């Protein structure tokens, strides 16, 4: 049990975000359900909430203009939060071909990295399939995202490392041979790599048992899972790796070894989950990863994160569905929750098991309508 401050998104204003032309929504501090057929815009509502926390879309590419409605030239998102007993106003605006603007309580950030961790949030999505079947970048991004929110020293080291890596790769591509130039850049890489490697080792040792507990809570005790951290660093330092692979790097045209190639190995029994996991097992695996992310952020940010659950019941057997409902219905562990589904069956089951108020919205072709709430039931 962690001593955490509460945080809720009370209201959001959406303008020209993907297929949502305009919406102003008031949310429950506990459970918010969005119902609608596939492709109607339920995920886009969650993605807009995600954008306010991370300054980027969960579902789109890094091209910020991709989130703008096709018929518009700009998008705007405004969120009103209650955080640690105080109001917070976050506003994001993006114009085509221009840099996005993020403001906190009316003031621009000097660096967007200052915003990361302010509004901790976890999104469980069908796209999490990429954590298992996708490339190493997806899993390393998960690791970086989790650690960064509770450790700004880590985030600063990650930014410095990536900048130095980009410089070194550019020097290699341009066939620079001056050893003094490489020495300067590689010193910066090595110092940052040490911080990243140590933090990732510590993180996996704490994170893995939390993940295994959630997996067993959903799947039962019959399946053994584990995580391990894979890195080029270990017996060799970053500088030794760079020295040993310098000739190879010049031939390949990029830096082939370093913490930028780190990975999380995902195991089911003694086999790789990527090769042996069924659809249901893979989905259980990714949900458990996200639930562990939630608990880790709750501890290290001191704030209970917002939890976004997008279409989480698809491809799961009834036993796992019931187990997930039991997990998320524990009001002592979770704060504000947003859930999407194509029908009300699972949503009604969660609402029935949870105390406190709720709000339900119908989403159709980007239009969002409030259809029910526990507050209305009390007054009827």
Major sheet summary line = 6 strands, antiparallel
- Low-confidence spans: pLDDT under 50, at least 5 residues? none
Structural class: alpha/beta
Number of E strands: 15
The separation of the N and C termini measures 37 Å
Please state the CA-atom Rg, rounded to the nearest Å: 22 Å
Percent range for helical residues? 40-55%
Total helix count? 12
- The side-by-side strand order for the widest beta sheet comes to 2-1-4-5-6-7
Mean pLDDT: 90
The H-and-E topology, N to C, reads as EEEHEEEEEHHHHEHHEEHHEHEHEEH
From the spread of the alpha carbons, the general shape counts as: globular
| % residues in beta strands | 15-25%
Compact overview of the structure:
This protein is α/β, with parallel strands linked by helices and 380 residues long.
